Amino acid sequence: MLRGCPERLAMHLKETGDWQRNTKDSGAAFLPGNSIEKRRAADTLNPVLTNSRMIQMRRWALAGNLTDLLRWAFVCAFLTGLSTRAPAAEAKARARVDFNRDIRPILSDNCYACHGPDSGKRKAGLRLDLKEAALAKLKSDNFAIVPGDPAKSALIARITNKDEDERMPPLKTGKHLTDAQIDLLRRWIVQGAVWQGHWSFIKPERPSPPATTGKRWARNPIDQFILARIEKEKLKPSPEADRATLIRRVAFDLTGLPPTPTEVDAFFADKQPDAYERLVDRLLQSPRFGEHEARYWLDVARYGDTHGLHLDNERSLWPYRDWVVSAFNRNQPFDQFTIEQLAGDLVESPTREQKIASGFNRCNVTSSEGGAIDDEFYMRYAVDRTETTSVVWMGLTAGCAVCHDHKFDPISQREFYQLYAFFNSLTEKAMDGNALLPPPIWKLPTPDQKEKLDRLNETLAERERVVRDAVAKVDYAEPPADRKPSEIERGDFVWVEDDFPAGAKAESSGADRKWIGEGRIHSGKRALTRTDKGLAQDFFTGARQALMIGKDDKLFAYVYLDPADPPKAIMLQFHTSDWLNRANWGDEDAIPFGDKGTTQKLLLGALPATGQWVRLEVDAEKVGLKPGAKVDGFAFTQFGGTVNWDKAGLMTATAQEDLAGISQIEWEKQEKAREKKDVPKPVEEALKADDAKRTDEQKKLLRDHYIANVYAPVREPFSPLLKARDEAKKPRDDLDNSLVATMIMQEMEKPRPSFVMKRGQYDQPGDPVTPAVPAMLPPLKSSGTTNRLDLARWLVSPDHPLTARVTVNRFWQQFFGTGIVKSSGDFGAQGEWPSHPELLDWLATEFLHTDWDVKRMIRLMVTSATYRQSSAVSEALRQKDPENRLLARGPRFRLDAEVIRDNALYVSGLLIEKMGGRGVRPYQPSGIWEAVGYTSSNTAKFEQDHGEALYRRSLYTFWKRTAPPPYLTTFDAPSREKYCTRRERTDTPLQALVTMNDPAYVEAARHFSERMIGHAKGAEDRLEFGFRLVTARQPSSSEKAILRETLKKHLARYQSNPDAAKKLVAVGESPVNDKLDSTELAAYTMVASLLLNLDETLNKN
Amino acid sequence: MNFAPDHFHPLSRRHFFKAAGVGVGRIALAGLMFPELARAATAARTSVKAHPGLPGLPHFASKAKRLIYLFMNGGPSQMDLLDYKPGLEKIYDSDLPDSIRMGQRLTTMTSGQSRFPIAPSKYQFKRYGQSGIWFSDLLQHTAKVADDLAVIKSVHTEAINHDPAVTYIQTGNQIPGKPSLGSWLSYGLGSECDNLPAFVVMTPSWSAKRDAQALYQRLWEAGFLPTKHAGVALRARGDPVLYLNDPPGVDKAARRDMLDALAKLNTTSFKRLGDPEINTRIAQYEMAFRMQSSVPELTDLAGESKATLDLYGPEVTTPGTFSHSALLARRLAERGVRSIEIFHREWDHHGDLPRDLPLQCRDVDHACYGLITDLKNRGMLDETLVVWGGEFGRTVYCQGKLSKENYGRDHHPRCFTMWMAGAGIKGGTVYGETDDFSYNVVKDPVHISDINATILHCMGIDHRRLTFKFQGLEQRLTGVEQEATPIEGILA
What would the pLDDT profile of A890-899 be if each residue is shown by its tens digit? Predict the structure, then answer.
């Protein structure tokens, strides 16, 4: 069910031991088992070392010391001299043990947790990852390791101790050394206990491709490395795959889509010796290449279309996704690709594209969960970026050092936080606000939009200038502070008429608010109306000009109760700082607010007469509003019935002057008190600042804003100016808001300080740290401030030992199914030993020498003879190398999720090859988002798109991270919540259900069947055509017979049941071709579905 | 439903490779059309499930063959349900003493409150069963099986918000990306049935019609484990399992014809290419075909007696309710599904708790009783572990306005209550104690990793030894760092 699965390896690691038996049986060194572990062991048995291998090892040995090197050279020479004449057992005893290949994995797996780099957890003072420490005298006066003398080495005594309590590793760790491992350790000590630096931390040097016996097979240096190993294992490479297989394989690998029959024919017809190479070149030029290659990158970049945490709302990063596609299509060199993604915002005068690229590190999941603590999330985001960047470029599991020193690799906790410091100073907010575009963002106008925007901005600037000039001419003086409101003749001050007062924040409960413009209106142009079965109301607060209550004042409002549908009760409520002043008419118990008989709920009598406008009056003092009180809101409340409200205000002898209109100080006071300020951001900032602390600039800003927008005496001359300005502002804002934008990186002006976080706790900062790189790697050249740009440049500097290796390894994994280093996300001590170390180094140096040319590297891999082999496998070869790590045959494995779907769309002719844009939402069973979604999330309900969107490449499918598309995750697509450097490849019945029953596949099968029917008259030709569409090859006669037979059965079935046929062909939103007989169409649809489900269709062969 | 007696297969995977000459996990082909496959199938039939577990597992004789996890998403209020605090009535509306709060962090939803008034539970508590365990009236049905439950009052976690906290208890880590409990069990112990997935998840509806906290598929996904170990959602609407039903116009016979032809063509490919995975694929299509019958059979309750249905409460026949899901859980358990998890939402009662909590309890209370009783009646409780709980607890102080009748409670990670029952569990036990305010654990603290270690223990797994190497570490459900211990005091 599962291929290339680490679990298999884990299992075999625990059952080494039978390799010895196998070896004895055969009497020769050969590959006995199916795990790397065994192959490592087998390697040590083979005394024939290639030259390059020796050079390589010597170089690694240099990290030990000169004595080691000399001893090492001697042993090598000795062993080489012995060659194969020695009997196997003797050869084994003398065979060179290689520290990196044989010993480090044992120590790392079993010992480093307590005797490794982590100083916090180190036991007995013993450290086994560094030579000096391991050879030092222990507290017990013993030596753990005495080179050349296992009997004196305490390590050997402890690992072989009969007493379970004494034996290492301790029983409770669940770890256990096999006899083979103990033997290796013993032999390593006998041979002098040579240490080597960890291979991947040493800069690769270019090995020469080894000489091989089979001269003609190799097409490029890759093949020499592969063949040398194959020959060493006494195997032969497989013959080249047939052309049909080859073109299909390479087309899928380079574009994610199959070749068309025409392309296959052309390839067959091309008799030139470089036909295949030209085919590869053509595919590399296809825009489909970038789309396909981007998909792998988006897995490592953890790209998604939602925030990922909690609400999981939509967010806009798709311009970044499109940038990745275009970067691959433009064949952007990998070093530039790196720099722009990690620091596109920091390069000199960044282009729009470079800013977009910096979105790489905005792809992490973010939250805005209520109650969450900012510092905790700032830390999480920075940790995620540090971890992701380390894994993706360096294959380093730096994340292990968040809480303590790394247990296996030389990365201290301090060094982790030094890396973290590069990513800890973004201008982002900890809480993303569940926004589509949480800042920092970058707007992306099209050239047209840009031009239009410029024009609108110009107009706006001009009109703003007019306002500014007018403001400058106004002479403003603050009125005296002790000024009393003047008394006037008592009368109505109308506060609510046709609308709520300026600045009011209006709300409703029950149905939406409704104003009517005709019918039951008392005065003015409109009135409020509301019908409800229970409690309902319209209310507002925050009116800019509050009502000033004076002595003997009465609040009033006009009401009309529908005689056909009267309410049980009505209520007027008045807002000061709270809602505690209420007047009630009708049933006192109907409206539940306030304690009866108090100013909070004063009953003023029965319901007023129905069918007429009634003026309600409320004695202000009786509801607790004393002279001097300020009322800034009313609520019009009812229980049941139909009620209209109109004109409301205050009957008063106090002049309702707009104090804010004549006093800037009063305005500032009011504005500050307001919860939601409707002033521009800088004005808000100035308001917030203390009077004394305001800069001159802020003072001027406040005054100008006040005069322009509030100061009453100049309202008349100003209002046309402001209107003109607002009219210019609206289209500018509308356009600006409609622009596509994307999330980018942006540094704070002053970096946020970083600390070593004790035990990885966000609230436990320890020592301060500044950006720096781990000491075991080459030094970083700083441009002065030491920022992400320096880090990015450092990663792609020629001295860096990891970036090129890790990157070419991922390309290799893409084409061959498994990386040369299988643990493609871990090149550290716990990572797996490379199957072909020299080849990896050769490829890494080649990548550097060719200036990080991605297409060239890919071309090199897919034009190798290794890649071009047939993937057919004999039983013997499969037994010997089930995972195909030796590559004595071509790669064969199941296509990835997206490729499977795209293939079905493509062969059916449905695929829309439109590139880029916001994620689309093709068919998906109902209830997937709903089952998990937070009800108020904007992705809680799935709304399917229609038309073209149903048939786009899967790359463009909208990616909701808490519920990703099931038709893709079923085929091992990751959730994109976290980086993924390698997808698993499983085989489950749920996958069969997708490709058989998902409407997308059923609809594709119908169109595929139309293509078959349209292709030829006869069944034979149609079926052959269909078969070729999915496999690229001709069917055999027996395959044809099976297809014919199954078509016949389905035809018979649908002819006897035409209704069933109609139902089947109606699946999907595309119109049914009514020119075709639906029974025939249905029968071919079943055959098409069969073809789409063939193992050969679902696999790269 | 192949209940092979030796459900932890005796053959190593590689041995099986050799013996059968075909792919891992290949299973008998219905119809046995091809002699070579038939031979292989017969050879393997005795030991092979849909997918086997790891060699060497279980680590020790297990009591529980399967797990039913009733997850109350949102954080149920422990002091209104199981953690009885009679002293609080007397200090209604008084301030939470600083000596209790001890400056511990609060969420930003209440950290700004000017005071933290004590909100005693308004519900009545009684002792139930021989063991005299306290239950509030809201759980009076569950209370009837008190003597089967181990109530753990001292569970605690570090996470204080939903997303990290749920992710933590379900995957062992607050950060997304780790495998869920059920997928670990599928990975470690394998599947016992060849027509249903090893890990099934249900997400029933809830009665307090409010904005319910989200779920995340990561709670049942496989993280870095192979995807086949991910939980499969059993849905109340549409296809019960995604894409299960054949398209309109395709009947069983048509599907069978298609699959026969597919197997023939794929066998041709196998002969040509020799890749054993081709046979695996054939087997998976056959399993899909079997699922097309086994799932409808599973969800068809016609065979259930009225007495059984009554156990689960009045909503049991309404698809999508918790009761219905609980009954399906038993049916899944009968059919050999390894892990069954029901995620019931909306237990997040910041305000109006007295309005919403009773509705939530009404959803689950009767069904919890029904499930335990039903399992017991069928002799299945001895081999089924049942777990009930949420991601954290709630504060004793009131969030927002307090009255005797109405109050709300904020998140509280420092202590909360869960219960376990069934295989491996000592019924009628109360474990752990909290202080008089249900604010701090004062005796026998149980970290959520201990809960997970206990679950694994009951399933025969030493949590330290169920590992998967990923990113250089031997990853495990209880975390690479946590020191977790099974709760000795509740184990039978």
Answer: 999 999 999 9
